[in-house]
Amino acid sequence: MNKKHIITIAGRLGSGKSSTANKIAEKLDYHRFSSGDFMRSIAEKHTVTLQELSEMAERDPSIDHEIDGEVKNAGEKDNLVIDSRLAFHWIPESFKVYLYLRPEIAADRILLDAQDNPNRYAEGYASLTKESVTESITTRLESEKKRYKALYNIDHTNPENFDLIIDTEKNNLDEVVEIILEKYQSWLQE
């Protein structure tokens, strides 16, 4: 397989995909693409929250197809870091990373991030409480698993899909970035 100079980062909500991807892109001087940002723009266009967009996508596959098309287009480039649930699938020649985090810890991080990040309000939490955010995380994950299984017959949480899995509860952002960079360099030389 021809390896691309692309790192795809998937993972649980709140696991640090965006922060990790931003830092890695900066360190490598790579381009950056976020399917989450693209999804937020679609939600804004429809004047709905991300939670509502996920529910719409369960009934309308064109939403996922539009997002996936953008990921595939981004994957045509080189020297790229992508945070996306399915980029590992669409760009199999990439170095595929999965960030894991328990929903309860993710909820704490999302609540902390919501203090400074207005994008968190667009995600459609019933309220910004730990219980509400944890429930929303679980609901979105189940919606994604259901949609991706029906559309593409894949489980985007299956560890076998990835070259590297990191528990971001046990490693801080700088440690996660260093682990990925080290493993990526090894992978490129294999």
Which descriptor suits the 3D outline? globular
Instruction: Output the number of helix runs.
Output: 8
Q: What is the CATH class designation? A: Alpha Beta
Question: Helical amount among residues, as a percent range?
Answer: 40-55%
Specify the structural class.
alpha/beta
Please give the number of β-strands. Answer: 5
Could you please describe the fold and organization of this structure?
This protein is an alpha/beta fold. The protein has a single domain, classed as P-loop containing nucleotide triphosphate hydrolases (Rossmann fold), CATH 3.40.50. 54% of the residues lie in helices and 13% in strands. The protein has helices at 17-28, 35-45, 50-59, 62-74, 87-90, 103-114, 130-152, 173-189; strands spanning 6-11, 31-34, 80-83, 95-100, 164-167. The radius of gyration is 16 Å and the shape is globular. It starts with 5 loop residues before the first strand and ends with a helix.
Produce a short descriptive summary.
The chain is built from 8 helices and 5 strands. The protein has helices spanning 17-28, 35-45, 50-59, 62-74, 87-90, 103-114, 130-152, 173-189, and strands at 6-11, 31-34, 80-83, 95-100, 164-167.
Describe the secondary structure blueprint for this structure.
Elements: E1 6-11, H1 17-28, E2 31-34, H2 35-45, H3 50-59, H4 62-74, E3 80-83, H5 87-90, E4 95-100, H6 103-114, H7 130-152, E5 164-167, H8 173-189
Helix pairs in contact: 1-8, 2-4, 3-7, 6-7
